[in-house]
Structures are given as structure tokens and as C-alpha cells.
Write a structure and sequence with these properties.
155 residues, alpha+beta, Jelly Rolls, six-stranded antiparallel sheet, 3 helices, 12 strands, 37% strand
């Protein structure tokens, strides 16, 4: 695959997709975790500063999804989100403050990460990945269907 991507677990995607049916409608992303006392699933979906990353505890689960929440907890994930990338789109080339956990749920061979100038496809085969997004990267959906990943920051 890539030296910037590590497979760390195998999970049941169908079970997660079933739990995700509980979520309210969203366009591109919805938070699965937030700050204690803030029940807004869109609170932590935008950009946050380095200070907010260091000082804010984005670990409060917002939805009753026992299987998915147990996976996120097991991997010490915070600020987890479901991210839907629309067809024929790409993000800016950027670096994140932490590595990210990726759980691909819906994807195809025309969806990939450009990670440190190397194209990497993460298949929706039940694998859970740690991606070194502290390296320059972007996500590209060059297909005609939405791509859906669960993504969270790693401590």
C-alpha cells in the first residue's frame, strides 16, 4: 500500500452502515463525537485550530451506535466524523495536526488519497487504516458516486 498507511483492524462494514441509519440527514459530514455538553453533530466538523486540538476534549459520543463507538474508543479516536465526498470532487492539498483513522464504507477504484505525492486507494473491505495525514495529502473522488469514510483524529 504505502509506508504512510497502516492497516490496524478488520471490522464489519454492514453492521456500521446499519448503525449509521440512525443519523440525521447531512450533506458532506456529520460529527460522531463532540465536546461534553454540546449535542450539535455539526459543531466539530469545521476547521479547528492547533490550540483547540490540544485543549478541547472532542470525545463525547453523540449517537447510540454501540459497535461503531466501541471501534472508535478502542483506537483512542477523537473528533470522529462521517465524511461524504461528492462525486467529481477533491479537497485542498494540506497537512493535518494528527494522524487519522480511516474506515472506508463506500468507495471505488476511482477514489483515492494523494498522500505525500503517492496515490493510495483505501478499499471498503472491512479494513481500518491509520493514515499519516501529517504529510501533505488530499482526497480525490474521480468517480460518479459518493465516497463515504469515517475519519477521526488519533491522540
Amino acid at each position: 500500500m504505502s509506508m504512510n498507511v497502516e492497516t490496524v483492524a478488520s471490522i464489519d462494514i454492514d453492521r456500521i452502515l446499519l448503525e449509521l441509519k440512525k443519523l440525521p440527514k447531512y450533506e458532506t459530514q456529520i460529527g460522531l463525537q463532540s465536546v461534553k455538553g454540546i449535542d450539535d453533530p455539526f459543531y466539530a466538523t469545521g476547521r479547528i485550530t492547533e490550540k483547540e486540538h490540544e485543549e478541547t476534549d472532542f470525545t463525547e459520543f453523540l449517537f447510540d451506535m454501540p459497535y461503531l463507538n466501541s471501534i472508535l474508543k478502542e483506537h483512542n479516536v477523537y473528533r470522529a466524523r462521517v465524511m461524504k465526498m461528492k462525486e467529481r470532487t477533491c479537497y485542498t492539498y494540506h497537512q493535518d495536526l494528527t494522524k487519522r483513522l480511516h474506515i472506508p464504507l463506500i468507495t471505488n477504484e476511482n477514489c483515492f488519497l494523494l498522500l505525500d505525492k503517492q496515490a493510495v486507494h483505501l478499499p471498503a473491505d472491512g479494513s481500518v487504516y491509520i493514515v499519516d495525514t501529517t504529510k501533505f495529502h488530499t482526497a480525490i473522488n474521480a468517480s460518479l458516486e459518493d465516497r463515504i469514510h469515517i475519519i477521526g483524529c488519533l491522540k
